[in-house]
Design a protein that fits this description.
Oligomer: single chain
Strand order of the largest sheet: 1-2-3-6-7-8-9-10
Structural class: alpha/beta
Radius of gyration: 18 Å
Order of helices and strands: HEHEHEEEHEHEHHEHEHEHHH
Largest sheet: 8 strands, parallel, barrel
CATH architecture: Alpha-Beta Barrel
Shape: globular
């Protein structure tokens, strides 16, 4: 029965998935709100561009699920909130899961729930909280046939790269991805490696669990398209991008360009016009 929901998440023709994450408001960081100050408008723009899924919180899922009709992206529901992304971190860090997460996901007609698995230098207690969250979430997901997306996320030291800068070292990412699989992930959502050509190692360590790649920090259009194309050649099953879509001048154009790469195998040069034409319209 879990496959019924996965069938709504992964594209029927390509078998891949493009999930646009706009759940950033959950984390209480001002910079994260850029591009999603008006969540309803952001959702409407994305629905028109038609990605496979939109990742939202329980407080904002209404804007997607209240849209009438069958032809809209699937809902991926964020189930945990944390305070680990600031440039200056508080003395006490946490990662907390919402109450009755899967029941709430079912009521919202979500196709998947997502939860973090942090590895933060000097903060093993946050990793412990994440593991406890997952241990509670997994049996509930099995009970309700709800797919579980686990997001292994390796941070760089905050004094070195404060404010949500990830570690792209495969030796750091690989064991955390494997731990996510061991904990029962149905989908892995992991960061790109510094060397994109090494990403096949992440796919390999996940076994038969599909891997979606996170977008990470803001980058140029060329960088995002080239990186995405390179990742798709490494055997990933799709992407979960947030800021590089929602903070783009034309989210719809970027979404369409990325959809062509993820689902049609298009090359970056073949889809750049989708962004450039959107830029002309916006001007």
């Amino acid at each position: 029965m879990k496959n019924y929901k996965l069938n709504r998440l992964f594209n029927r023709k390509s078998g891949n998935c493009f999930d646009v994450a706009i759940d950033h408001g959950f984390f209480n960081e001002y910079a994260f709100l850029s591009g999603i100050e008006n969540v309803q408008k952001a959702v409407e723009v994305l629905v028109e561009a038609a990605p496979d899924a939109i990742q939202l919180t329980l407080g904002q899922a209404q804007y997607l699920q209240s849209i009438p009709g069958r032809e809209k992206p699937s809902l991926v529901l964020r189930t945990d909130v944390a305070n680990v992304y600031g440039k200056e971190l508080p003395t006490t860090l946490f990662s907390r899961m919402i109450e009755n997460p899967v029941e709430q996901a079912v009521r919202l007609d979500a196709t998947c729930v997502v939860v973090n698995l942090f590895s933060i230098p000097g903060a093993p207690e946050v990793t412990d909280q994440c593991i406890q969250n997952i241990l509670k979430l997994k049996p509930l997901c099995e009970q309700y046939a709800m797919p579980l997306m686990i997001e292994p996320l390796v941070f760089r030291p905050n004094h070195e790269a404060g404010g949500y800068m990830v570690n792209g070292d495969p030796q750091q990412i690989i064991p955390l991805v494997r731990q996510g699989v061991e904990l029962g992930a149905d989908i892995i959502k992991a960061d790109p490696t510094d060397d994109i050509d090494q990403y096949h190692r992440i796919v390999e360590i996940a076994g038969n669990i599909p891997v979606l790649v996170r977008g990470g920090g803001k980058a140029t259009d060329e960088e995002i398209l080239d990186r995405t194309f390179g990742l798709m050649q490494q055997g990933v099953r799709g992407i979960v991008y947030g800021r590089n879509v929602i903070q783009h001048a034309n989210p719809a154009g970027m979404t369409k360009a990325l959809m062509a790469i993820v689902h049609e195998g298009a090359r970056p040069a073949e889809v750049m016009h989708l962004i450039q034409s959107a830029n002309l319209i916006a001007q």
